[in-house]
Design brief:
Blueprint (H helix, E strand, L loop, with lengths): L1 H16 L7 E3 L15 E3 L3 E2 L7 E6 L3 E13 L3 H12 L13 E14 L5 E13 L7 E10 L5 H26 L5
Length: about 190
């Protein structure tokens, strides 16, 4: 009997050590709609910066109903890049100039700092994606007229898993672009 149990334990350990892992799924915000910055808007978007714990490709979630202060990563799902890098690309496509031209001065600079980017579970089946980002808009020629605004955007996740998180954050990236474009337009000093 002891030999059988020992053989079973060894077989289980060998199976664990063989490295059989679930395939990792990689997510991004999807293919962007043909979004472009509004005509006449002349804004350079610097690389989005993020809190240190967000400089990862881990897809993070919080179980608010257990302990909202604990961030955990999905084990078999990853972002294609760090959230700040993915936001930089998306916002350059839809808010600012997608590329800068050497020697040409833009009207405004937009810097962004990402402080929250996680999937929050209110219960095992009820969840939402939450993003918090601080935007600073300045006149490029004078570095004056700096405006600062905090954006907090939440969207329900369609499913309580990494795929739901990715879908909700794709919506958030689009909503953030829309809100930034409206804010920049209202500022009135970023027109070319």
């Amino acid at each position: 009997m002891k030999t059988r149990i020992m053989f079973l334990v060894i077989a289980l350990l060998a199976g664990c050590a063989s490295g059989s892992k679930l395939p990792v799924e990689t997510y991004d915000f999807g293919i962007a709609a043909s979004a472009t910055a509004p005509p006449g808007q002349d804004v350079f978007i610097a690389d989005v910066r993020a809190a240190e714990w967000l400089n990862t490709t881990d897809m993070l979630y919080r179980l608010e109903y257990r302990n909202p202060r604990v961030l955990m990563p999905y084990s078999a799902s990853r972002w294609a890049g760090a959230p700040a890098a993915m936001l930089t690309i998306r916002l350059r496509q839809s808010v600012g100039n997608a590329m800068s031209v050497r020697g040409r001065q833009v009207k405004c600079n937009l810097t962004l700092f990402l402080s929250e980017f996680s999937h929050v579970f209110v219960s095992a089946q009820d969840s939402r994606a939450v993003m918090q980002i601080r935007a600073t808009l300045t006149d490029a020629a004078t570095s004056e007229r700096g405006l600062v605004r905090e954006f907090r955007i939440e969207r329900p996740a369609p499913t309580p898993n990494a795929a739901g998180e990715a879908a909700a954050f794709a919506d958030i990236a689009t909503l953030l672009a829309d809100e930034l474009n409206a804010w920049i337009r209202d500022a009135g000093f970023c027109r070319s």
